[in-house]
Amino acid sequence: MKFEVFSDRYLPKINQELKAYFSDRDDDIFDMISYALNSAGKRLRPLITLAVYAAAGKVIDDTAIKAATAVEFVHAYSLVHDDLPEMDNDSKRRGQDSVWKAYGVGNAVLVGDGLLTEAFKKLADLPIPDSLRLRLIYSLALAAGPDNMVRGQQYDLFSKEKVQSVEDLEFVHLMKTGSLMTYAATAGGILAGLPENALRYLNVYGANLGIAFQIKDDLKDIEQDKAEHKNSFPKLAGVDGSRAELAEHVKAAREAIEKIPNFQHSVLTDLLDQL
Ligand code: GRG
């Protein structure tokens, strides 16, 4: 199945879950969190979790949707904080004012804090065996925390001098962007009860997808003439070099996913083809 067809089918369910989540709460903080969470994102990470779950032969039910959407809370937090004036200083996000622009910096910090912590509550609330819940919670904490996403952001924004080569930049983006993609892919496998070797292949898929996604993003910036980032792939490897790197990572991701036995990988490989 094409990724687009899969997305058309499950995006409304993901958005419905996100919209309903805080709808029974009434206070400013919930309104501001909903402003961030319900804006027009592609929901790529929950879709990856669901695509892996379905590829393993499982039927996507309400619990799977609830489980898959936790990572979107973390992703939304990362964007809210990334947009802050002291970080990437962006006034617009997903076609609307960024949260700090709409509600002020202090509120934007709190919106991010709320989204991040609620993600773990959401996983803890899942009606699944304790061992699976614990593994999902641990994996998301590892991906989002100082070993991965937080560290990648710190390198990217405040330790630019440490990023001198394509390898350095790949390491940064593996941590910054690849970490949640890797979590998203392995979470689908954990939920489906896949064996450890399959989870390792999903890990390789997610990591390479994350780096490929970032290279594609850098190349798009060049095409649209808005490449202001100092440490972009095209700056360090050139446009042709970046395209070659992109192809390498897509290939590595594809090879990994194709090695999983009894796994209907077409949605996940089609996502690679989009890159
Ligand atoms: C604040 C700890 C902390 C980390 C922030 C992911 C991140 C780390 C910052 C985002 C910076 C950025 C815009 C990177 C480009 C690639 C990227 C991750 C784009 C946003 O992801 P999409 O395209 O966005 O999935 P939507 O809006 O569709 O969800």
Automatic annotation (TrEMBL):
Question: SUPFAM superfamilies of this UniProt entry?
Answer: Terpenoid synthases
Which GO annotations describe the biological process of this protein? Answer: isoprenoid biosynthetic process
> What InterPro entries does the record point to?
Isoprenoid_synthase_dom_sf, Polyprenyl_synt, Polyprenyl_synt_CS
| GO terms, molecular function | metal ion binding; prenyltransferase activity
Q: Which UniProt keywords apply?
A: Isoprene biosynthesis, Magnesium, Metal-binding, Transferase
Does Metal-binding appear among the keywords?
A: yes
What this protein needs as a cofactor is: Mg(2+)
Pfam family of the protein (one): polyprenyl_synt
Name the protein family: Belongs to the FPP/GGPP synthase family.
Its protein name is Geranyltranstransferase (Farnesyldiphosphate synthase)
Which species is listed as the source?
Oenococcus kitaharae DSM 17330
